[in-house]
Every structure is written in structure tokens, then in C-alpha cells.
């Protein structure tokens, strides 16, 4: 069996020095681009994380500086003792504004923030009779509160409308009495006529 003609080997072409340098330059440039890209991505990620952290801190700071009243029941529902939700906000005075159907004048307190049943009882019982409220109906009355308080050495003012929950408790042979149950925020930062805001909430 005869063998075919021998195969010719392809000639080997070595890269010239210039070509080798060019390829190395491309590799170095590619590595440099990748390194710069990765660095930019890391910087963008760090900046985004820092921005998120600042936003969270800003929200926390805003929440700390926001004035909010909370109430504590006392004397079996005869009184709601009011205080700021933040211990570093010290209440100085308060002006309480009620619906005209409940109480026509305002009540001023100094150094003893509270809502007393005696301020509202007669008006609430009359309003319930006028409105023919159902005995099981949830009872609430809006109260406008103007509070001056000290925070970080500065005197500040808050104007808000709160809702006071109450109930009518029947007493044997002595009629009914009002029992306060709690307080919650209805509207914050009321500008203009606070009395009008209270009356609008009362109508609703």
C-alpha cells in the first residue's frame, strides 16, 4: 500500500515585538477599564448606602422633633393626664378648644396638662340627648389643643386637633356620668381658625 505525499506543515509565524507590545497594551487597558468600572460600582453602592442611612436618620430626627400628645387615664376616667410622647419636650401651657355644642369657652392650663371630665360632662350629655345617640354608639369629641413647649432650649408651639373617646356610664338612681377613655391625634399642624377645624370635625 503506497503512502500519499507527505503533508506540508503550515509555517509558524511568530509575532513581532510590536504586535506583542500591542496585545499586552490591550490586555492592560482592558484590566484597567475593568478595575475602574468595579471601583465606580463600589463607590456608587457606597454613596447609595450612605444616602439611605442619611434618609433614615433624617426621618428618625423628624419623628423625634414631632410633637405628639399621649393621654393617661386617671381617677377612674375622670381625668386624662396629657404629656408629650418625647421626654425632651416639656409642656408649658395649653389652650383647649371644644365644639360649641359641648363647651362655649376655652380652657387654659399651665404646668398641669390634662382634660377633666368636669369640663365636658354637662355638654356631652346634652349633646348626646340632642343627637339621640344610641347607647352602644362609640362616642368621641374633637378637642383643639394649642400647646407651648420647650425643646432643646427653644419655645415652640403646636396646634392640633385630637379626639377624646368617652362613654356614658349609668348609675343607679343618679343618672349617667361621663367616663373618659383615651385620646388620639386627628389632625396635626392646624393653621388658621382652630375653632373652625374643631367644629368641622364635630359635624363629621
Task: Describe the model.
This protein has two domains: 15-65; 67-203. By secondary structure, it is an alpha+beta fold. The mean pLDDT is 84. It contains three helices and eight strands, in the order H-E-E-E-E-E-H-E-E-E-H. The longest helix is centred in the N-terminal third of the chain and has 49 residues, at 17-65. The strands form two sheets. It has a five-stranded antiparallel β-sheet. The protein is 36% helix and 35% strand.
List keywords for this structure.
204 residues, alpha+beta, 3-stranded antiparallel sheet
Layout: helices, strands, pairs:
Layout: H1 17-65, E1 69-74, E2 79-84, E3 89-97, E4 107-110, E5 114-116, H2 117-131, E6 139-151, E7 154-171, E8 175-187, H3 194-203
Antiparallel strand pairs: 1-2, 2-5, 3-4, 3-6, 6-7, 7-8
Concise structural overview:
With 204 residues, the protein is an alpha+beta fold. The protein contains 3 helices and 8 strands; from the N terminus they run H-E-E-E-E-E-H-E-E-E-H.
